[in-house]
Amino acid sequence: MDGERRVVSTTLPVDLRRTLAPLRHGHRDPAHVLTVDGAIWRATRLTTGPVTIRLAPLTPTAVQVAAWGLGAAQALEAAPALLGELDDASTFDPPPGPVRDAYRRSSAVRLTRSDRVLEALVPAILEQRVITRTAHDAWRWLLLRHGEPAPGPGPAGMRVPPTAQAWADVPVWDFHLAGVDPRRARAVVAAARLAHRLEEATALGTVETTRRLLLVPGVGQWTAAETTQRALGDADAVPLGDYHLPGQVGWALTGERTDDAGMLALLAPYRPHRWRVVRHLLLTGMARVPRRGPRLTIEDHRRR
Asked: pTM of the entire structure?
């Protein structure tokens, strides 16, 4: 198996699968594949070109990384960030209670940083106000239609996400066939047309990146937070306007459901680690609320 490779040693144990899970959009994501040997294959597009990356755990603190394609060298350089090495939890010391318990049980899950804003933003837009399965199906359909074959010897059918120009050129009928309504389709195209300004903001930090994201028509606080979590490893990005999250956080911390304002009040003592708190509560099941209400209905925009 050719390709450039290196072993990345991490300062702390890392749960590879769950650390990278936010970058996977459904079990059939053609850009993110888990194989039976425990490896993770990712197809992405870096500034130097498309690349396929294989990450395989060797020990709790060592991961073998191999890469193929024009972006291979850049991918190896960026691998530590992908594994959470830029995730600084040194000031996170929650008091005894559910947050500390959750963190202790899942401390090997780090906050990944992909540094690919558009690749984080497009799926976040697709996830707006629809059930997750619908968004994942749309992502898969669009990548199979408009992505390109992943370089190297990866699993069959892997695709590199489209370029910004390719996203901007997706015809309206292809969004329709993917089950994406016109409002979300327009937001994807607008984001693609502003991709250069969004990508360059990663070097300026989460505040500036968030500010620029919120200038994109169709992108609000929820979408911006979901994007900075994945692209920048933002430990404090709380997605507001989520259908389930306030109730989950309220249940985990107080045993009662709450709304966005209540959630922010509960999380305020944990700044600048509010998303870290939420992530670990969700990972450990502490935020699982008993189901009493109706499930969201799957909308099929292709029949309209």
From this structure: 0.92
Check: CB of residue 40 under 8 Å from CB of residue 52: no
pLDDT tens-digit series, residues 67-84: 999 999 999 999 999 999
In a domain, 106, yes or no: no
List CB contacts of 299: < 8 A, sequence separation 6 or more: 130, 134, 181
Residue 92 near residue 273 (C-beta atoms within 8 A): yes
Query: What single string gives the DSSP state of each residue in 99-118?
Result: HHHHHHHTTT--------HH
The DSSP call for residue 45 is E
User: Using CA atoms, how far apart are residues 204 and 161, in angstroms rounded to an integer?
Assistant: 24
Inside any domain, residue 228 = yes
51 forms bridges with which residues in the sheet? Answer: 44
Is residue 110, in this structure, part of any structural domain at all?
A: no
Please tell me the predicted confidence (pLDDT) of residue 303: 45
* Residue 227 shares a structural domain with residue 131: yes
How far are the Cα atoms of 193, 194, 209 from residue 199, in angstroms, in the given order?
A: 12, 9, 8
Cα–Cα distance for residue pair 103/280, rounded to 1 Å:
6
Residue 145 lies in domain: 117-232
Residue 96: which residues within 8 A CB-CB, separation 6 or more? Answer: none
Does any domain span residue 168?
A: yes
Per the CB < 8 A criterion, the answer to whether 218 and 192 are in contact is no
